[in-house]
Amino acid sequence: MHADDREFEDFVRQIEPRLRRAFLGSRGVDGAADAVSEATAYAWEHWQDVRVMENPAGYLYRVGQSRTRTRKLAALPPPEVVGLPDIEPALIPALLALPETQRTAVWLVHACGWPYADVATALETSPSMIGNHVQRAMARLRDELGVGTDA
């Protein structure tokens, strides 16, 4: 096996779970596998460029998102699929009611643990804009669920 092949396989083993979890939030259970496949295929085709990127996960998230764009509303996965604890049943409909940019930002930040800078790269915006999206989304979710900020 060639050294580049081994390096790529190691890269995919590291990045695939992170991408899969991120795509579950934006593409739903059915679309996540397709998006990860598109992203990793792109990474293979452009490995010389991807391997030196500062944030390849964010870039590949954007690639997978673009290549699997649909007009249908994605269904969010049940919490056990992505390893989340039991959640308030009204949370899923409340998340789905958010604008797509707010829903994606809050999912990547809070459900996937991505830093604002990585989310900003993935969504091609600034970290401060991601902060705005997350702040607005959280305010709407708190209002919708009747939760105070100290809960």
Describe it.
The protein is an all-alpha fold. 69% of the residues lie in helices and 0% in strands. The N and C termini lie far apart (53 Å). It has 7 helices and no strands. The mean pLDDT is 85. It has helices at 3-45, 47-50, 56-67, 91-97, 100-111, 116-122, 127-145.
Note the main sheet: none
* SS element count, helices: 7
Mean pLDDT: 85
What portion of the residues fall into strands of 2 or more residues?
Answer: under 5%
Features:
7 helices; 151 residues; mainly alpha
List the helices and strands and how they pair.
Blueprint: H1 3-45, H2 47-50, H3 56-67, H4 91-97, H5 100-111, H6 116-122, H7 127-145
Helix pairs in contact: 1-3, 3-6, 5-7, 6-7
Summarize this structure briefly:
This protein is mainly alpha-helical. It has helices at 3-45, 47-50, 56-67, 91-97, 100-111, 116-122, 127-145.
